[in-house]
Amino acid sequence: MAVYVYAVARGDHPCRLDGLTGIGSGEPPVRVVESAGLRAVVSDVEEEVRPRRRDIAAHQAVLDRLLADGTPLPLRFGYTAPDDDSVRRVLDERAATYLDALAGVQGCAEYNIKAGQEQSVLLRSILDASPRASSLNDEILSGHTDPRLPLELGQLVAAEVEARRSTASTELIRALAPMARAYVVHPPTGEDFLNLSLLIPRDGEDTFLDAHAGLARETGEGVRTRVAGPLPPYSFVP
Known about the structure:
Pfam families: GvpL_GvpF. The protein is α+β, with helices and mostly antiparallel strands.
């Protein structure tokens, strides 16, 4: 029978899994496979793994339980192995890599910061700060039909948006990164201009959250930041 793998932990992690059920229609118990000083947290799975709401919640519940007692290396949703022996072979073959990675994240949790800016507020700020942009906008609104005017305004605004977002991202990273053991900048999506994951020591979480709250009050007009965490360190798994 195939096994679904949730995470890899150090051999001394308590892995308190009582009461947890794994993914799949049978809600199998979650258990541990051990080898090479490591513990893989798994459950049996019979059907094809799909990202159903109940299964995603079960996956996250296992990782949250593990994170409460020590930092594991989380696997992305959907990872399966043919059987327990296959899991042990992977633990044996990658023992040095896993142990190094676990040492790197020990005592930490991941926090994710996303930052975006309201487009209407940003555009108004640019028009207020740039005489040329304001002049072009006024000419367009007054009825001028020269096609070069909106083209120039669009290029000017786009360049200013990029410059402002780059500056804001740099300032946020500069302020928060020193509190992290490591950080990763991901490609932002949607209207966000920053997607930042930080590996924060558990004994420094309050200081980090206070710093973020202060930055959220001080960021530029229309800028909003959101924080998620503590999370398993997905961004720091080799």
